[in-house]
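Quick look at the format.
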Amino acid sequence: MKKTTWIILAILLSFSSFSQTIDSLSNSKKQSLLLKSKNQNTAAIVLGGIGAIAFFAGLAGVTKVELEEGFGETEGGKGGATALLIGGTVSLGVGAFLAIESRKNKKQAAQITTGIKWEKTTPLVTNNNLPVIYPAMSIQLKLK
């Protein structure tokens, strides 16, 4: 019984000595990613709303000018509406990009929290030339 106890203590000592340590950097990185995600999401909502308003206002202005002047004439008068249309489109695109980046940052923060990280694997080719993909996953256990 004493020998088993010493073996278990030696195993626990080696696990605690050589295991990965979870430092405060991962917690601060998680908080940083969550704050960045929140700011990006807010900016995405604001830019998306302003972009949608500008896009539809520009579309209405261009359509109104085209209906009043006719489609064949190219007289001035729709420059402001065209600028609104282009500016709204750009703003919508930037808002969508920020929303995607916000989701990526939130996902990275969740991976730090859970300690589970899914990794992409390369397909292995078998004898019949069909690719086989085995999932790879790394798990980090928090012992403290």
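Next, a different chain entirely:
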Amino acid sequence: MKLDWLLLLWLLPAGIFKWTSGDRRRIRWRATGAAFGLVVVPASSALYSLYYLGPVAAVLGLVGLPIMLVHTRVLSQTGEWLGFPQITMIGGGDELLSLSIVGGIVWMIVYASLGWMFDSWHLHRRRTIQS
């Protein structure tokens, strides 16, 4: 049951992307990046856990593995720097919760910043073309 809810987290960035069409287009990539950053750690770990459900689901699990490894490696180093205990994926729910909270904050800032840069570039490009 928890796995279903964690997999549904992938719909949040897609919904934000759709919501920011029209008048809210100026913040589209910033908002989508922030939403993706919030969900990338728990959703990628849920995607990776599909690997153990069978051969068809294992393909999706193999997609989730590199996403999870990239995002959690940076978090374990950031967590140590901030004074958190060692964060690993081997532990139980408390460690995964700590990893998801720290990951949501860190990756939300990173991806929202990248989205802000893309929004700024896109707005500048559109103004240049119109004038």
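The chain has one domain: 2-130.

See the schema section for token definitions.
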